[in-house]
């Protein structure tokens, strides 16, 4: 869904990956509330369009959706081409899309309930206890976690870097978590990949962004 969006040349433009629910959707809402033209991305085109309609129901019209699978090079390239043609620049990139890297033994493995909803009311120890009892890490799940949470974020950033450099004030925001700070042998090894590796990638991207 690539609706028309009015954008004066001085309007700031943001891309939010995984913007159709949870933290990503709230980031889109707050950016749009502050006058930023937001491109909300989602793997599922229908879910992205539905998220945009939710935001438009809040009188936030400067939002559109675009399909993006951050593990698919052609999908990333299509987004980059769209942004270049429509806006000619990118001011803010919010890397939010991620996967858990584990197999859930109970329901909600389809993503119909966010982790925030699942863990509502639990403190950190309670969340850990729940995950110990209800999650298992498999080779395929861990591989997906690495490919998505680190390499996917890296590839999106690299592809959109020229558009960020075309902005007078380009910004990259990488959403992470504090799980990587836990000093325990944790059942979910793929989730800490993001908080451990992404901050280093953030610093590297900052250097690249400032070269121009």
Automatic annotation (TrEMBL):
Keywords: NADP, Oxidoreductase
Keyword Iron-sulfur in annotation: no
GO molecular function list: oxidoreductase activity
Listed Pfam families: adh_short
GO cellular component, one term: membrane
InterPro entries per the UniProt record, alphabetical: NAD(P)-bd_dom_sf (IPR036291), SDR_fam (IPR002347)
Protein family per UniProt: Belongs to the short-chain dehydrogenases/reductases (SDR) family.
PANTHER family: (+)-NEOMENTHOL DEHYDROGENASE, OS04G0532100 PROTEIN
Protein name in the entry: (+)-neomenthol dehydrogenase
Lineage, top ranks: Eukaryota, Viridiplantae, Streptophyta, Embryophyta, Tracheophyta
């Amino acid at each position: 869904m690539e609706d028309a969006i009015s954008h004066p040349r001085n309007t700031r433009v943001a891309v939010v990956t995984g913007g159709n629910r949870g933290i990503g959707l709230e980031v889109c809402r707050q950016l749009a509330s502050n006058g930023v033209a937001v491109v909300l991305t989602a793997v599922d085109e229908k879910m992205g369009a539905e998220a945009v309609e939710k935001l438009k129901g809040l009188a936030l019209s400067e939002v559109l959706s675009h399909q993006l699978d951050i593990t698919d090079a052609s999908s990333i390239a299509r987004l980059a081409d769209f942004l270049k043609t429509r806006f000619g620049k990118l001011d803010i990139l919010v890397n939010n899309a991620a996967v858990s890297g584990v197999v859930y033994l109970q329901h909600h493995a389809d993503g119909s309930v966010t982790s925030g909803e699942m863990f509502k009311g639990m403190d950190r120890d309670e969340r850990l206890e729940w995950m110990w009892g209800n999650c298992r890490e498999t080779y395929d799940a861990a591989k997906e976690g690495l490919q998505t949470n680190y390499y996917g974020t890296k590839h999106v950033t690299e592809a959109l870097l020229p558009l960020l450099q075309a902005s007078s004030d380009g910004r990259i925001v990488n959403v992470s978590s504090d799980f990587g700070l836990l000093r325990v042998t944790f059942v979910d090894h793929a989730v800490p990949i993001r908080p451990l590796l992404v901050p280093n990638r953030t610093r590297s991207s900052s250097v690249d962004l400032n070269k121009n």
